[in-house]
Structures are given as C-alpha cells and as structure tokens.
Amino acid sequence: MPQGSWSEKRERQYEHIKSGVQQRGAGEDRAEEIAARTVNKDRARAGESRTASRTSTQDISSERRGGLRSHKGPGGPTRDQLYNEAKKRNIKGRSKMTKEQLARALGR
Question: Residue 106 gets which letter from DSSP?
Fold first, then answer.
C-alpha cells in the first residue's frame, strides 16, 4: 500500500517495517496498516505532510517508543513456573512463598 507521494526513503522504510511486523506473526493487512501509520507519523514529524495531528508532532517517535519497549519480555517467569523449579530443587517453604520470594530463593 505504499503511497505515490512517499519518497524512496519512505518506501524503503515502509517495506522494512512491514516485513518486520510480518516476521513477528502479524497478517499482511495488519502489517501494512502498522507500516503505513508509522511512515505517515514520521512524515508528519519531519514536516513532509500537509496536515499533522498534535500527537504526531509532539508525541515520542515511533522508533524511540519501539526501542524502549523492546527486549522487555512479558515480565519473566510466572509464579507457577518458579514454584515448579523450586519443587525440582526441593526448596523448603515454597508453597507459602510469593513470586518475588521464589525468585530470590532460586537466585534470580
């Protein structure tokens, strides 16, 4: 869905974002939507579009936001996963421990 008014740089950016989103498991339509929105927001921030919303120009950039969120994961193992590992290691008192206590007992 690349636009005719986009520069070659924006076309490349669109394709790069689209392929990345698809590699993470999104469908074709969803990947196209995310890529187009990201490119359009970048164009607005750079002054390349006729109109731009306030959030497009004042909000944190899409790239920075993605970078801040990357490599965080869902928050580590669940309490049950920690409990099962503690059970395998025969840690005493594990049934009454919280997730944080289990993690500490396991040395995490």
Answer: T
Q: What is the radius of gyration, based on Cα positions, of the chain?
A: 22
Which DSSP string corresponds to 46-101? TT-SS---HHHHHSPPHHHHHHHHTT-TTSSS-HHHHHHHHHHTT-TTGGG--HHH
pLDDT in tens, 84-107: 999 999 999 999 999 999 999 999
Distance (Å, rounded) from C-alpha 91 to C-alpha 98?
13
Q: How many whole angstroms separate alpha carbon 11 and alpha carbon 24?
A: 20
Residue 104 is given by DSSP the state H
Instruction: Round to whole Å and give the CA distance between 88 and 51.
Output: 60
